Amino acid sequence: ILMDLQMPEMDGFTATRHIRLKESKDGGHIPVVAMTAHAMMEHRIKCFDAGMDDYITKPLEGKIIFQTIERILKKIPSSIKEEFPSHSENIIFDSKAFLERLDGNMQLFRKTLSLSLDDITSEIMNLTSAIEKGESSKIKFHAHSIKGVSSNISACTLKNIAGKIEDLSFSDNKSQIKELEKELFREFEKFKENLRELHV
């Protein structure tokens, strides 16, 4: 099972604990791999404490997914190591990294970008509405969605800003959230301009 950690009804940690509880009664073991945007050691330890077999960080790469599955099937323990942000986090659009994850498939590259642009546009509208209404849970949900889509297409600065909004979603610092919202708009326009310059 590739387990997303943030889901609307039940988070991935709770879902995994339910699976392990059932297995303790009925027997068997279903491999569970966490899909997480967090690379910090504390978060990864939490995955293992919940009963997960391994973890992969977003954006997902086919090669890493297959390596992880192979490691689990061969019962090779996963190493817990902390990853630190790279310089790529300040890049508007890392087109090279995104294309590599798609094995150089330009048709898929353009199609995925088109769909992702629609998704981000819609989620930014939803986020704006949630911020105006002060709905913390919806701010967190929509910011997380923007962060996830941005991460998948290597829109690095968009991902970072959305992540900051997500982190502040339940705080009282509404003015900072509003400033980050404006920054998100600006970066999204820069991202779209970047795509136009690349003739995508």
How would you write the strand order of the largest sheet? 1-2-3
What is the mean predicted local confidence, pLDDT? Answer: 85
Provide the succession of SSEs.
Answer: EHEHEHHHHHH
Count of individual helical segments: 8
The computed structural class is mainly alpha
Low-confidence stretches: 80-87
Shape annotation? globular
* Distance, first to last CA: 34 Å
Number of strands: 3
Largest sheet: 3 strands, parallel
Which band does the percent of strand residues land in? Answer: 5-15%
Radius of gyration: 18 Å
Considering DSSP H and I runs of 4 or more, what fraction of the residues is helical? Answer: 55-70%
Structure description:
α1 links the parallel β1 (2-4) and β2. α5 (106-133) runs antiparallel to α8 (174-197), α6 packs antiparallel against α7 (156-168) and α7 runs antiparallel to α8. The model is unreliable at 80-87 (pLDDT under 50). The chain has eight helices and three strands, in the order βαβαβαααααα. It starts with a strand and ends with a helix. By secondary structure, it is mostly helical. It is globular.
What's this, in brief?
With 200 residues, the chain is mainly alpha-helical. Helix content is 62%, strand content 6%.
Topology:
Blueprint: E1 2-4, H1 12-26, E2 33-36, H2 41-49, E3 54-57, H3 62-73, H4 95-101, H5 106-133, H6 136-152, H7 156-168, H8 174-197
Parallel strand pairs: 1-2, 2-3
Helix pairs in contact: 5-6, 5-8, 6-7, 7-8
Keywords:
mainly alpha, 3 strands, 200 residues
